[in-house]
Write a structure and sequence with these properties.
By secondary structure, this protein is of the alpha+beta class. It is about 45% helix and about 10% strand. The longest helix has 24 residues. The chain is elongated and about 70 Å long.
Length: about 70
Amino acid sequence: MQFDYMTWLYKYGIYAAMILGALILAALARNRFARARFQEMDDSDKLQTPTYEEMDSGIKLSDPDDEDNP
């Protein structure tokens, strides 16, 4: 039996690339945001908070049928 490299690469290489891409995006998913733009705050709180704060960004995808995933 001969090892078919292209079939293996097609079958497992795509999964590896997807996982690697997800890990890179997860590591880069932090940006600086103005908290007052996304939360209701009164004027005194707006003046006391930093102008920009580093927060998680992006979206989270999950399976709605997965009971372990809240």
